[in-house]
Structure formats: structure tokens, C-alpha cells
Amino acid sequence: MDPLSVTASLVSIIQAAIVTTKALVAYAKDTKNASRDKKLLTEEASLLSKLLERLQQRALENQDESWLGQHADVVWQLDAAFRDLAKALKIDLKMGNIPEESRFQALVSSARWHFSKSEVYSLLQRIERLRQYASSLMSDAQLSILSRVDQQQKEALDRKRLDEILNWLSPLDMNCTHQSISDRVQPGSGKWFLNSEPYVNWSSSEGEIDPLWCWGIPGAGKTVLTSIVINHLRQSRGEDRRAEVGVAVIYLKYNEPEQVVSSLLGAVLRQLIQDSNMLDQAVQDLYEHHRQRNTPPPLESIVLLLQKTFETYKDAFLVIDGLDECEEETRWDLIDQVNKFPGVRVMVTSRYLSTIEEELENFVRFEIKANKMDMELFIDYQVQRNRNLRRMVQRAPRLRQDIKSAVVKTAENM
User: Fold this and answer.
1) Cα–Cα nearest to 269, from 345, 174, 161, 155
2) Where is each Nephrocystin 3-like N-terminal domain found (predicted)?
């Protein structure tokens, strides 16, 4: 049964039933010779009418299609009970109102009570059946709503708890940083790097892979390339391999006060949890243990959790951008800890520094230079978004190429 037809049928049945019960109440009130039977029938019909009105409001406000589909049988039983009552009162349901030839009109014209005791008893039975089915639907509807509310509250509490744990693991939100950088990247940029031999070997080769160090002068586009790499890795694995391939990034910034090793590695764990949308019990236990003491996560615990997490993947990638941007002590401590993750493919970007070269002696080295195609894409983007520059280029079309040539030449001489 189509849930939408169930919804429409339920509302239609209720509307007709309300009209009928209200008419029955009105008739009973208007007739003479008040009796116990008339009073009882009036009260029962009035109660049913009010119940039906609440059920109608509930059905209109909360059209839970799955719930209505599951209760189609009760809706049809309600319909059958109402039709039985209408038949007893000689009401033509196709008319949509109380026709003149119905028993109501004939009885009201004499303004007297004409129902026998047996007829009243029969009507009361029919009303009781209607009320039982309506009450059943009303109760189940309320339970369905309460269940949804409980589920929504549980999900909200789960999200709140997850946010609390993630923020406790690290105040550094690398996903947010990554998004802000990616938003500035022009489509098509970085293809030369993604197709380069060092990157292809690092990202795609089988077996044990040497880590990759990409160095270049300031302004060569290392951070932009990092964001391109992360997007490429995540897109390449697809949604179906999210649980098999872990991808995380660390963006280092100069003079960042919260840039300590525990927070940096905590940010890696934070990303992997967000990416998998699963919170391991060991992380929750560690959080509860330290929450009671109001203490941050120890570096040793973070490293152990990361080791266990990386072991769950068939392949894992960790990219560290701007290694030269942090304090030297933090830099070497970070590399020492990262070396504790065997099997993880590590890529680092930085300026060329002899101290970094010495520390990364086992890394494959790849020099990053400003790429002509990337620079031209960036210039086209700037021309497009800058109204004044766009007008100047429209008046002098050659100006665009002159700008590109000057920028590329300057970059080559750096």
C-alpha cells in the first residue's frame, strides 16, 4: 500500500467521521424527551468526535509515511467501522455531508428522540469500535513521535559528545584549514605534480615505499599542492574504500601557539575519526579517564591510538605541509613520532634547509617550482573575479598575456 494513499485515506475517513459524529451530537442535543440513552449516546459521540479531531491534526502534522504504511490495516478497520456506523444512520458517504433523506433529517424534523434501546445499543457498539481503532492509531502515532524525538535527541547527544572528544584530542581542525586552502585552488592546477614520477611512485607503488620530501622556495605553491594531493588521494579511493584507505594532513603555521606535537598528532587522529565516522571505544575510555581529571591527552596515548588506527587500513597516507614553519624541537619530535607508524606513506613539504635535509636523509627528494600552467590558471581566475582588471583586459586583450608573461618570467628568476 502506498503510504501517501494511506495518509489521504486516513484524513478523508476522519473528516467524514467527524461530520457524522458532530451531527449525531447536534441531533441528540436538539431533541426532546431527554433520556439516559440519549445522554449516553451524546457523550460517547462527543468523545469520539474530539478524539477524531486530535487524530486528524496528528495525521496532518506528522505524516510519517513509514509509520502510516505499517498501520494501513488499522486505517482500513477504522474505515470499515465508520462505514458501518454511517450505514446504520442511513448516511450517503459519497455526498460528503448529511443528506436530507438521512435518518438525521427525518428525526430532527420531529425534534423527538426516535432511537430504540436496541438501536442505541447498536450505535454505541459501533462508536466504541471506532473509538478503539482511533485510539490505537493515536497511541501508536504518539509512540512513533516519541521514538523519533528520542532518536533525534540521542543523535544530538552523540554528535555533541563526538565534538567534545574531537576538540579534546586536538584544538587544531585540519579539515577546516584544508577546506579554506582548497577553495582557492583553480580547477586543473597541480596536474603536473600528480603525474610526476616521484608522486606516482609514492602514491601508487606496491610494497614498502620511501617517504617523499617536496622542497621549494617560499611562494612556489607547496601548500596549494598539499591540498591538491589530499583531494586527489581522497577522490581516488572513493567512498567504497573509505574504510580501507586512511588520509590525513598536517598544515603547519609559523608562530602557531597550539602547534605542539601532541596536538598535531591528535589532529591526525581527529581527522581519521571524522573520516570514518566511527569512534573507537579505546578513544572514549581515554577521554573519560582524563575528563575526570581535566587533563589533555598524553602524547604516548595519542601515538598508541594512531598506531592501532593505522593498522586497520590497507593503505594510509600522511602529508605534512610546511615542516620549516614550526620550532626546530617540535619539528624533530614530530618526525620521530611519525617514524613510529610503519607502513604509512609520509610526504613532507618545506623550504630547503640543510638541517631538514640531514633529518630527512632517507626521504626521496623532489624540488617544487612554480608551474607555468598553474600560474596562468591563477591569473585567469584573478582577472575573472576582479572587475577593474577584467574591464582593462576587455579593452586591451593583449594585456592578459602580458601579465602572464611578466609573472612567469619573474618566477623563473627567483
Assistant:
1) 174
2) 188-351
**Coil, helix or strand at residue 183:** coil
Q: How far apart are CA 213 and CA 166, in angstroms?
A: 29
Q: Which amino acid is at 50?
A: K
pLDDT at 378: 63
Question: And the C-alpha cell for 36?
Answer: 439516559
Average pLDDT in the 31-56 region?
59
Contact in structure between 248 and 174 (CB atoms under 8 Å) = yes
C-beta separation of 306 from 300 below 8 A: no
Which residues, in sequence order, are CB contacts of 193 under 8 Å at separation 6+?
199, 225, 228, 229, 368, 371
CA torsion sign for 83, 86, 92, 97 is negative
Nearest Cα to Cα of residue 98 among 13, 30, 24, 39 = 24
Q: What is the pLDDT of residues 291-306, one digit of tens each?
A: 888 899 999 999 999 9
User: Would you say domain 170-369 falls under CATH 3.60.10.10?
Assistant: no
All three cell numbers of 95: 455526498
**Is residue 212 within 8 Å of 366, Cβ to Cβ?**
yes
Higher pLDDT, 184 or 348: 348
For the whole prediction, is pTM greater than 0.90? no
Domain range summary for the chain, segments of one domain joined by +: 3-154, 170-369, 370-414
Mean pLDDT for the chain overall? 74
d(CA 318, CA 341): 10
